[in-house]
Amino acid sequence: MTHDARRYFDLPSPFPMKRGGELHGARVAYETWGELSKARDNAVLILTGLSPSAHAASNDIDPSQGWWEAMIGPGKAIDTSRWFVICVNSLGSDKGSTCPASIDPATGQPYRLSFPELALEDVANAAHAAISGLGIEQLACLIGCSMGGMSALAYMLLHPGSVRAHISVDTAPQAQPFAIAIRSLQREAIRLDPHWNNGQYDDQRYPDTGMSIARKLGVITYRSAMEWNGRFARIRLEAEQRDDNPFGFEFEVESYLQGHAQRFVRTFDPNSYLYLSRASDWFDIAEYGEGSIPEGLKRIQIERAMVIGVSTDILFPLEQQEQIAEGLKAAGAAVEFVALDSPQGHDAFLVDIENYSRAIGGFLTRL
Amino acid sequence: MTHDARRYFDLPSPFPMKRGGELHGARVAYETWGELSKARDNAVLILTGLSPSAHAASNDIDPSQGWWEAMIGPGKAIDTSRWFVICVNSLGSDKGSTCPASIDPATGQPYRLSFPELALEDVANAAHAAISGLGIEQLACLIGCSMGGMSALAYMLLHPGSVRAHISVDTAPQAQPFAIAIRSLQREAIRLDPHWNNGQYDDQRYPDTGMSIARKLGVITYRSAMEWNGRFARIRLEAEQRDDNPFGFEFEVESYLQGHAQRFVRTFDPNSYLYLSRASDWFDIAEYGEGSIPEGLKRIQIERAMVIGVSTDILFPLEQQEQIAEGLKAAGAAVEFVALDSPQGHDAFLVDIENYSRAIGGFLTRL
């Protein structure tokens, strides 16, 4: 059932890519909730982080829980009795959209590393094409979370007039060196796994080790030390949960990371991960402002925005949300800046539903 | 020349280990600066972080720069015209002390994973034995940096009356889950490298990849995002510094990490790294206080202490230094707590010489 709720939008062919090259016969997967109004003025688009699919919430066709289930639905913060909500799977992600694991129509073989270089601007352009294809000229609100927040900035900048209001969630106007270092190391763990084999892996020889290390490093940076002090402290695993390896897992926090890695390793295409990760490093709104973040943001013309960040986020620190808020304000938008103290770090938007519901729900209600 | 300055202290044989087993014919390497007074009351011992050797500073025999060169010498913060300074290489480290790469006299082969389980209490006991062997009953001051700060707490607790004053630098009373997660992932990167081969590597088949990832992850957590924003920003490598790999290094921060890794990978024995890393995770002063950190610290009887930490340290957060300061104070010591805002993170003690000199030099002058 899981995949049935997906719809697909065929991108214009050829679909030109920012850094050169083009895709032929490409598509993006998306899901929707609620009804588009006759005036087509109640559309809310969600752009996602690196790994989630378009299945942000359950719906009639796919009743399984979505990755933002608690936020989307009738009466919830993103109220589907008022809004027509769309979530588009990023171009380059393997959750239904064309990606390095897709068949290249020119060869009949998977693209793998022959997939053209991917930028978040391409993710934005593909999402914009899908929205236009649904007959929506202007979004009532564009919501971008984490990597999706960077894609959202690209979307608004590249498509003037396409967005009325914006909610920026735990994101950044450019990748900073700490985040680049983390992502570079994640990519290196995958690339140095002999089973990655320059992208030519298969189910028998698959870079499980590299993907596992990459995922664990991701989870470490998505959460916060403060949360873990309360949650795991120095709790040991039970004897029967431990193996004989002299350096095997002993603490609950190690087992927690292992669980995250095991759930992820075979469910995300490694090459697609590399492409999206690199795209995140490349993103820099200052490219559009002659090297200046405020000047880049000044080119974004919207009416209102809410910018949300968390003090415990080490991957996208709060100062970066403040830069976005200041920049959009200077560009003429009415901006609300929400600095939260949620202990969960970068992932707070997925966990601290109470505070994010209050902020996002309140903003949408006032639109 | 580099190794000539080392002296060696033969540990009592057998040397019992905290978690079971014993070492035969074991020794620790150490270096000294300055002169021991007739009353033997001017000794300052330095216990190190995970990777440094006993060569903390240059001396007549080895004029090469030491890892704390700017801090140790005549007229410097740790003034060798007044103090007799000793730095002991940790038991289990491959910089001259007996470690998993050493020959097991029982077999004539390297210990590798047959080395007994290592705890920081063993590191402390070995250092204490060396100090006693030098005829020093009581240290004027015990300085512990990073992992060495934890070893120092063990030293003072296990050897009552052996220390008058203590300087605690960027350390913790116990390993917290964030630090455990980082170190566990470093160990896993090494263990999952096929060349690690359950500890049976050699120069031809050596776990370079695992060690490189472990070191890079270390460096990421030893510094701070704030420092890197100023230092690297989004500066790109020159074209000639880049390779053809589609996911090769592009940003200066990536090249910086690569340089650190290359300098480390073949200069630290991987098995010794695993042992010392695990010992750091195990350390918990609360073990000596029926589960309570303050109760554990209360068993440490010293006259004075200075506890220094840095607000940008993500590996040993400032709150942990505050715990040490509060605990030693409750135990009856006169404690100075120094909270610095150095941007360099955990490594600040190696870099922000101005502030560390002022604090440490001031404290030692007042003794």
Short characterization:
2 copies of one chain form a homodimer. Chain A has 367 residues and is α/β, with parallel strands linked by helices.
3D architecture notes:
- Chains A, B: It catalyses: succinyl-CoA + L-serine = O-succinyl-L-serine + CoA.
- Chains A, B: Transfers a succinyl group from succinyl-CoA to L-serine, forming succinyl-L-serine.
- Chains A, B: Belongs to the AB hydrolase superfamily. MetX family.
- Chains A, B: Residues 49-52 are annotated as: Important for substrate specificity.
- Chains A, B: GO terms for molecular function: homoserine O-acetyltransferase activity.
- With 367 residues, chain A is of the alpha/beta class.
- The first copy, chain A, has 2 domains: 7-175 and 284-366, Rossmann fold, CATH 3.40.50; 180-273, Rna Polymerase Sigma Factor, Chain: A (Orthogonal Bundle).
- Chain A has 11 helices and 14 strands.
- Chain A has helices at 120-133, 147-158, 177-191, 208-222, 225-231, 252-265, 270-282, 293-297, 318-330, 348-351, 353-366, and strands at 7-10, 15-16, 22-23, 27-33, 43-47, 72-73, 78-79, 84-88, 103-104, 109-110, 139-145, 163-169, 304-310, 334-340.
- In chain A, the strands form 4 sheets. An 8-stranded mixed β-sheet of chain A has the order 1-4-8-5-11-12-13-14, with helices on both faces.
- In chain A, strand 13 (304-310), helix 9 (318-330) and strand 14 (334-340) form a beta-alpha-beta unit.
- In chain A, helix 1 (120-133) packs across helix 2 (147-158), helix 3 runs antiparallel to helix 4 (208-222) and helix 3 packs antiparallel against helix 7.
- Chain A is globular.
- Chains A and B meet through helix 3, helix 4, helix 5, helix 6 and helix 7 of A and helix 3, helix 4, helix 5, helix 6 and helix 7 of B.
